[in-house]
Design brief:
Layout (H helix, E strand, L loop, with lengths): L16 E3 L2 E3 L3 E6 L4 E6 L3 E4 L5 E2 L2 E3 L5 E9 L5 E8 L1 E2 L8 E2 L2 E2 L19 E5 L7 E3 L2 E2 L13 E3 L3 H16 L8 E4 L4 H6 L13 E5 L20 H16 L8 E5 L8 E5 L5 E2 L1
Parallel strand pairs: 3-9, 19-21
Antiparallel strand pairs: 1-2, 1-4, 4-7, 5-8, 6-7, 8-9, 10-13, 11-12, 13-16, 14-15, 17-18, 18-20, 19-20
């Protein structure tokens, strides 16, 4: 899904904020936590927290018990910088029925065993509930929650899983592209989260990282905005070589240590249903294909 209606936002906080150990350098971000979870804030300078009544306490706050979307404002009392923090109180996975559904929405069943015993393949503990009116909520300065929804036809509300580390990686790629002269407002998220139901329906691999909200299939779509990859290598053609160019660009970032979260990187060419694209993820170890 592409993002329209606003220009690229390059703003960074002068003093990043650590939220539960995750360093946030952006003036707008989102977290996804189970109801009742305590979230701890750390920063170089004192930070005041405002949000829903009776949820903020001494440099920390507790995620509201009622599932849904909540807005907090973190203000650096020295610099005056503001971090707009969107917190989604998750629907616990325990609310899935025997068929793997959340109401009308088909999630499906996650694999019963971990891949190679890795904890990253444990089933999610909760799901983000998104109404149609909430699809435009920013999860970072240049991406919205609606960009990551599973493509299945089930109506709203929809549910998904999303890793904050993925948004940080996407923002860093976007910044590097803009700094290199490839001016683009956002990245086209061709595929973000996939439910196990949808992942099985399209014949994808059992342990696809898309099912854990830690992967995205992306391409640059700016000149023109037409739902296809731009001519990244500037050879006058749109083909797999443009995906190869983008993959090499991202891999060079990885080799420089630009990403806190190491992950997979895959190259895909055109088919009758889509143009070339690149897969990225934050699985925690290097993989290339």
């Amino acid at each position: 899904m592409a993002l329209t209606g606003f220009a690229y936002d390059s703003t960074l906080l002068k003093e990043p904020v650590s939220i539960d150990g995750l360093e946030i350098a952006y003036p707008e971000f989102a977290l996804f936590k189970l109801p009742g979870t305590k979230i701890t804030i750390r920063a170089k300078s004192p930070v005041s927290i405002t949000g829903p009544q009776d949820t903020t306490v001494n440099g920390a706050f507790v995620v509201p018990r009622k599932q849904g979307w909540y807005h907090y404002q973190l203000t650096n009392t020295v610099t005056g910088e503001i971090l707009k923090l969107h917190v989604f109180s998750l629907v616990p996975a325990s609310q899935l029925d025997a068929k793997g559904n959340l109401g009308h929405f088909r999630v499906g069943h996650y694999p019963k065993t971990r891949l190679k015993g890795q904890a990253i393949y444990d089933p999610p503990t909760g799901f983000i509930r998104v109404s149609e009116a909430e699809t435009g909520i920013k999860v970072s300065p240049n991406f919205t929650v609606g960009q990551f929804l599973s493509k299945q036809s089930d109506g709203f509300p929809k549910y998904l899983v999303l890793q904050p580390e993925l948004m940080i990686k996407l923002e860093r790629i976007l910044r590097a592209l803009n700094n290199a002269g490839h001016k683009t407002d956002s990245l086209h998220i061709m595929s973000g989260y996939r439910t196990p139901f949808y992942n099985h329906a399209i014949g994808n691999v059992l342990y696809s990282r898309h099912q854990w909200g830690g992967a995205a299939d992306i391409f640059v779509d700016q000149k023109p905005k037409n739902n296809f990859m731009d001519d990244m290598n500037r050879d006058g053609k749109i083909d797999k070589n443009d995906a190869i160019w983008l993959s090499k660009f991202i891999d060079n970032m990885s080799r420089r240590g630009d990403f806190r979260s190491v992950g997979g990187l895959g190259i895909y060419g055109s088919t009758p249903s889509h143009g070339p694209f690149v897969h990225i993820d934050v699985r925690g170890y290097r993989a290339r294909w």
